[in-house]
Design a protein that fits this description.
Length: 471
């Protein structure tokens, strides 16, 4: 790393000491990426890590549905080869799309043709546990647990460390400084780094916020009769502006299913057990409600409401110090209903690794931050782009211009045809799972099918058994 990003104290490998604030998946993967460019990497985490795969207080979504999209799976394998096999060995199911899912979107059921992409549907505690075990086994990476970051050391031109206070010592306790040549904020959507930067006399980043008010509730079930009803692994009812309720069930380790129901502002799903299952009756088909009636709940229902899309524009020039980067939800957080967070964390860590290794350009703070921003751009376009059309949305940039209206029209046709036209569906899945760039939707064959093909009507009833036709 050049002096602009690290400090003036360099070794042959680059920065001497990097500190990552937050031991989330994003923080752990960032630490792994940094370990090839620093003598030592320290992860500062306010929780104490559990010994097993258990929820922890610092992950408010830890009891909710998480998936690792195909693009994220490929990225995490670059950083931690073999980790996906470790997750599978621990019981994480691999779900093929669309063959393994009964899915409703835009008024149509998907044909269950052979899978073109796959997702992992491990619980968040399991995925984080496996990643943490692999990352912290690296002797270059250490964790400081039970320590809360309360500020940045340095000034408006350079960050030189992190101020931390041991948990339980009280606010009156004097924080200690962990000196660092580079500080990476991976503290999540509640990041206080904008305030910390202002306290140094620097300029905090601008923010973009788009919020549908969506809320969801999650409960774990067992359903031994599931295979008698369908050969699918799960189901997914995706909301849209005309049908604003959602429901998804996916298998996780331990022979369990995780079920999440969602609704917009004023239509929030309840967390009372019986009311939770009654809420499923609001979906456009009784499939989910009937499935729940045969299943055995094995947990309480937990709610979550902080689902706004928030993007902090560290990529724009400003009076900000060198030696500070933001990753994960501290940089860009998405409506969790799209399931993108962990995939973007992995893609950003790969982008961080590659930006620091690029010998053609000096990896300045702004240049590396722009690489991290670029790694999240496609996910933002999908999440914020979809949410922008939902009723009651707040924030955003107002009405779309002429080009935006044409793009919206084209994307509506893509979504209408993806469930029933294999070529369109294949491209659509590759984009929404962050496997291919959005340009895949504009390949000549896809464009022909979108522009000139009729939108086929699907069956009125869900396809409970796989379509054996070749897609």
């Amino acid at each position: 790393m050049a002096d602009e990003l690290g400090s003036g104290h360099r070794t042959a490998r680059g920065t001497r000491h990097a500190v990552v604030i937050g031991g989330s998946v994003a923080g752990l993967l960032a630490a792994r990426a940094l370990a090839d460019h620093a003598e030592q990497v320290t992860v500062v985490e306010r929780d104490r890590f559990p010994a097993e795969a258990e929820p922890r207080p610092g992950v408010p979504q830890g009891r909710h549905l998480h998936v690792l999209l195909e693009g994220g799976r490929r990225a995490i394998e670059q950083l931690l080869p073999g980790v996906v096999d470790e997750l599978a060995a621990a019981g994480a199911p691999r779900v093929g799309m669309p063959s393994d899912m009964v899915q409703w979107q835009a008024g149509r059921w998907y044909r269950r043709t052979p899978a073109t992409v796959h997702i992992l549907s491990a619980s968040r505690p399991l995925l984080e546990h496996v990643v943490r075990r692999r990352v912290l086994a690296d002797p270059r990476i250490t964790a400081v647990e039970g320590a809360e970051a309360v500020g940045l050391a340095g000034d408006a031109t350079r960050v030189r460390g992190v101020l931390v206070r041991e948990r339980g010592t009280g606010r009156e306790a004097e924080p200690r400084t962990i000196a660092a040549d580079l500080v990476v904020d991976a503290s999540g959507r509640g990041s206080r780094a904008p305030r910390w930067l202002a306290e140094l006399g620097a300029e905090p980043p601008g923010e973009e916020v788009l919020d549908t008010g969506l809320a969801y509730a999650t409960r774990f079930y067992r359903n031994d009769r599931h295979a008698d009803d369908m050969d699918a692994l799960g189901f997914n009812v995706i909301p849209n502006p005309r049908q604003t309720y959602g429901g998804v069930a996916l298998p996780v380790e331990g022979d369990r299913f995780v079920v999440t129901l969602s609704g917009l502002r004023g239509q929030e799903p309840p967390t009372d057990g019986a009311a939770f299952e009654e809420f499923a009756g609001r979906l456009p088909h009784p499939l989910v409600r009937d499935w729940l009636a045969k299943a055995e709940p094995v947990s309480a229902a937990h709610g979550f409401r902080g689902t706004a899309n928030v993007r902090r524009r560290y990529d724009r020039p400003g009076r900000r110090p060198a030696g500070f980067l933001a990753v994960g939800d501290a940089l860009c957080t998405f409506n969790p209903v799209y399931g993108q967070g962990m995939a973007v964390a992995a893609l950003a860590a790969v982008a961080l690794r590659d930006a620091l290794a690029d010998r053609r350009r000096t990896p300045t703070t702004l240049r590396v931050q722009r690489a991290l921003f670029a790694a999240s751009r496609q996910a933002w376009d999908i999440s914020a782009g979809g949410d922008r059309k939902m009723p009651g949305v707040t924030g955003g940039t107002g009405a779309a211009g002429p080009l935006g209206r044409v793009t919206d029209w084209y994307m509506r046709r893509v979504v209408e045809r993806a469930p029933r036209v294999p070529e369109v569906g294949r491209a659509f899945r590759s984009v929404v799972t962050l496997t291919d760039p959005a340009t895949a939707l504009f390949a000549p064959g896809v464009v022909r099918a979108v522009l000139f093909g009729a939108a086929p009507r699907g069956p009125e009833q869900p396809p409970l058994w796989r379509d054996r036709d070749d897609c």
